[in-house]
Amino acid sequence: MLGIVASIIDGILVGSVYGLAAMGLTLIWGVMDVVNLTHGALIVAGMFALFLLAHALGLPAYGALPIVLVGGFVVGVLLYWVSVHRMIGRPPLMSLLSTFAVNLVLIGLGTDVWGTDLFNVPVALPGVSFGRYTFPGTHILAAVLTAVIAGGMYLFLYGTRLGKAIRAVANNRDAAELVGIPTTRVLSMAFGLGAALAAVSGTLIGTLFPFTVLSGDAYQLKSFVVTVLGGLGNPTGALLGGIVLGLIEGLATPFMPVSWTLVIEFAIFVAVLIAFPRGLLVFRR
Amino acid sequence: MRVMNQLSAHARFLVQLVRRPFFWIIGLVTAAFVVAPIIGNNVELREGLLIACIYIILASNLNLMVGYAGYVNFGSIVFFGLGGYICVYLMSAAEWPLAAATLAAGLCVFALAYLFGFGILRLRGPFFALATIGINEAVAAFVINFPPWGGSSGLYLSPELFRQVGGPMQALWVIYFIIVAIMALSLYLSFAIKNSKFGLGLLAIGQNEDAAAVLGVPTARYKALAYSVSAILPAIAGGLYFFKSAYIQPPDAFDLNLSLEAMAVMMLGGQGTVTGPILAGYFYEELRGWLLTSDTFSHFQLVVAGALLLVIVLFLPGGFMGWIHDRWPRLRKVLE
After folding, report:
1. Does A258 fall in a domain?
2. For position B198, what pLDDT does the model report?
């Protein structure tokens, strides 16, 4: 019994990080109707930034977070101008293909530099024990940091001028342009923000689990499942969806081989989409 | 009576196709693929052209879904891999002859794709694209956990089996000729569908699915049919390809990168065209061969495929054929 409670709690902790990963995807999707298939590569970029900063420069693991946040934003704005800007308003096929192409290039370069070996960044943090079960300190801190970042996102989107502009552009781009919002610049910022969230979540995941250059695909798929669970363009929904996914994973792993989790997640993805095409948790904007 | 009418309509349709110059152009291309390596018994050229054929088969069938119906299928390689597995399994465990095993592979994958298709084709746009990646991953995970198919270590064929196609040396030639034939079939299929009522329905779905449905196109059935028809020939090609290598393992069979290369080839040639995959498949194979043998670029195959795809999508959305059709509008009627 206690074992199940423990896997539920750990599922929630890890799931909140999945929610953070999906937040970047859902923000871009909701604002500019672009499915960013570079998402997985950005998550991996966050992981390897952690590896480089922690190993080569000897920074503490969590000290990498602000650097990754800023770096991810800059990379995101660049990616917007390279691969997305010309695709806005064209058929969705085109932006899928262009972001996918960038993903291929990034992953290809990554495999050249690092191969497909497993990397691991050990982080020494004391865990919290209940009887026989210990919750790793990294899992707890990752969940706390996720909550902080998600809260910051909420304040940003609802409290600042830029955040309000992003929401206005998401609602109706023409109307936003009419009231004087520089929509193109806002779109590039929103893309940068989405990329930064993806990279930061990658860094946090890097403190939890070992990773390879190709790990991005699995987390990208998780992000899609979370987005579908939580509804499009909805950061709060993404967090809840992430926790739901973490719970499902936490409860499923004791009963079946790990290689099946991807299949289960995919089955959930298709089932939810067919039953609830607009997502499970639909909130008012 | 009605059956007779339908048959004669089909016959008239075929006669129409045969009268088109493009019908004979496909024949010429196929003949070139057959004759070129025979001259001087050029084994190196044959192996290169075989890979080009695989690219053309994959891209041409992918085109039915992406170019005609406008549904992005990122996981088309699952057909190739499943076909390979079914064929290799039937040959090694049930000792079926090659022809029966490949045909069975094609039919099984067709049926499976029809079933899958009805499920996931209710999804549209990006959701469908993501689901196709999921299908590939799910099937790969299933195969890894499926003991009769050897799990992650895969299946191996005994060299004895090559005897039915005339021993190891001759087998390579026989398989090459069959794959060229599959390539020709893919091109004829693509050509025939493009000029049929079914193809018109698919093109209508690609332009505006709701409008097509209102005009009476049975969208659900057409989409599922396009998805499953585009599975048959890649499955057969997969069976032949893995018979040639004499072993099959999950990472090779369900290599998502190969389906992305097929996507790049299709876009490069020009989506929705029949000629495009031929030009682009050959070009891409030459480029890949050059990259693999050069010292600097030997590891950059994917990077190049990605960069190529990006440049096409950004600056040349019509691909080779789009450019050719713009440049010489009269060719539009000859090269489909």
Report:
1. yes
2. 93
Query: For a pLDDT cut of 70, what percent of chain A falls above it?
Result: 96
Distance of CA B78 to the CA centre of its chain: 11
What is the pLDDT at residue A284? 44
How many domains does one find in chain A?
1
Q: Inter-chain contact B306–A93, Cβ cutoff 8 Å?
A: no
For residue A129, is it within any domain?
yes
Amino acid at B168: P
Share above pLDDT 90 across residues of chain A, in percent, rounded to a whole number = 28
Answer CATH for B2-333 from 3.30.70, 3.40.50, 1.10.3470, 1.20.120? 1.10.3470
Quote the ipTM score.
0.81
Residues 6+ apart with CB under 8 A from A4: A251
Per CB-CB distance under 8 Å, the chain A contacts of B301 are 108
Contact of A47 with A215, CB cutoff 8 Å: yes
| A223 inside domain | yes
Instruction: Tokens 């049975």: give the residue.
Output: B218
Q: What is the pTM of this model?
A: 0.83
Domain spans in chain B, listed from the N-terminal domain onward: 2-333
Burial of A116 (0-12, 13-18, 19+ CB in 10 A): exposed
Set of chain B residues whose Cβ sits within 8 Å of the Cβ of A35: 126, 129-130
